[in-house]
Amino acid sequence: MTTLAQPSPxxxxxxxxxxxxxxxxxxxxxxYLFISPAGLLITVFSYIAIIFSLYISFYQxxxxxxxxxxxxxxxxTRALNDKLVRTSFRNTFVYVIVxxxxxxxxxxxxxxxxxxxxxxxxxxxxxxxxxxxxxxxVTSMLWVWLYEPTGGINRLLQMVxxxxxxxxxxxxTALPAIMIMTIWGAVGYYMIIFLAGLxxxxxxxxxxxxxxxxxxxxxxxxxxxxxxxxxxxxAFVTLTIAAxxxxxxxxxxxxxGPMNSTQTVQMVVYHYAFQRFQMGYASAISWMxxxxxxxxxxxxxxxxxxxxxx
Amino acid sequence: xxxxxxxxxxxxRDQNRLLLIATRRSFTLIVYALxxxxxxxxxxxxxxxxxxxxxxxxxxxxxxxxVIPMPPTLSTYYDxxxxxxxxxYLGNSILYAAVVLIVQLFIDSLAAYSFARVDFPGRETLFLxxxxxxxxxxxxxxxxxxLIAHGLGLTNTFxxxxxxxxxxxxxxxxxxxxxxxxxxxxxDAARIDGSGFFGTYWRIMLPLAKPAMVTLGVFIFLNExxxxxxxxxxxxxxxxxxxxxxxxxxxxxxxxxxPAVFAGSTIVSFPIVILFVLAQEYIIGGxxxxxxxx
Lengths: 310, 294
Known about the structure:
The structure holds two protein chains of two kinds.
Chain A: H1 14-56, H2 74-81, H3 83-116, H4 121-133, H5 136-146, H6 152-159, H7 174-200, H8 203-211, H9 216-227, H10 229-244, H11 248-253, H12 265-275, H13 279-306
Helix pairs in contact in A: 1-13, 2-13, 3-7, 3-10, 3-12, 4-7, 7-10, 10-13, 12-13
Chain B: H1 2-6, H2 10-52, H3 57-62, H4 75-82, H5 86-117, H6 123-132, H7 138-151, H8 158-162, H9 169-180, H10 184-192, H11 197-208, H12 210-226, H13 229-234, H14 243-253, H15 258-293
Helix pairs in contact in B: 4-15, 5-9, 5-12, 5-14, 10-11, 12-15, 14-15
């Protein structure tokens, strides 16, 4: 109690600095103890894992045989020429390009619409949110049934005299079918994000716009969108990262078929790693995906952040 | 001033006002109609699932899209629990979710408290190292995590399923944020009373952090309950499957018995719906927070 910290002299010798450090460590060592369980787990399952993954991507590695020859870049060049891998990257790109803007736009629209009404707002929010909290496995199975040739979707289409396809068994409709289901399942989540963003916009801005005689459309583009910037960045970046790794829906609904039209990169990684036990090769593919994700996240952040705040 | 403005064409103005009110009304009406239609599309698949889960197989094949089962039956649930082994899966899922929930809450909050309040050398760097892992896509750590678990002899074990979920960077971040906002005076009082770091954490900080702990707890539970890929990979024995892997397997071997699959799906969704109804504010609050911080 009596030895309150004195202001340290401007110039310190290295020895005294070290002594100071030791004193701090002696006083705060439980801090290290408290972070150690989390630290150990994160070190093992994130840091060691990622280094390990990079390491085995240069080897022919399976868990059964003992021989693990070094391959250099062999796995990567093999992946570049693997038709299945190329198809999966193409499909995944299409999926990301459709999904990310669609979910962003629809959920933003839902949030803005939901914000317009007073009565029943909470109820709408709850209803739109239900698909988000249901396990993807369950919603996927539900939609498999809805997509049957005489299922719910085609019956709805019949009402407007459209003959629906056999969604999940037709190579040209299977991927769109999965995308529609994913959009349906995700808009509720991002609607919440945007509602929170909208609530942060001060009412004064809207009042000022009204005084200036700005219309709804103008107000939306000039006030709502710029001030939702943070929420929009968050939605765009997290959606992109998640969409590149799509797996469960595909696994349940189509298993990558028909004719590989729904093979995604993560499906192919799973296939090589856990069905053919080529862990090294599968790791190389997952690192290529990581590279793509990293590139696009960095690009998005750069694009968004370079546009200065209003 | 007001009179001169009002006098020339006040009839015209009234008409304009009426028109404005009318367009505003019709706008609101259109918004409601749109929202109701969309809400219907969100909820209807679930109503079908629920309705079909009470249908006999003949009823299902003749009227798969009626929402009222004629007559309702519980045999589908019986099938799901016996043939579908949903009872076993449900027990496993509850165990996994409960263990991960308790352990992760403890480990995350302890680390978060330390990062927020214990001024140990290297704190900022270590915290950044924790945050950086949030950027790692799960797809790239999946294979090595499996190989590490395999090396530790944890394949096809309960421990193997839960261990990687025992710490979460997001949880540490969320709780640290909360601890930082708790006034320091409360702890200082405890320190004077001779409480150590752990005592302060356990007796002062943890009770104060209850709202944040509940929010995080709900997220951990939902995450663990929905988790599919990891248990699918690490487990090979159906007796240890959680509900997600179990129901997928049940549908695979039982394509024709849709009503029982729907009964199983209802069983899987039920705890989630209950949790959502109970903790809706926490869930929505937590999601809103993560978006605003972004």
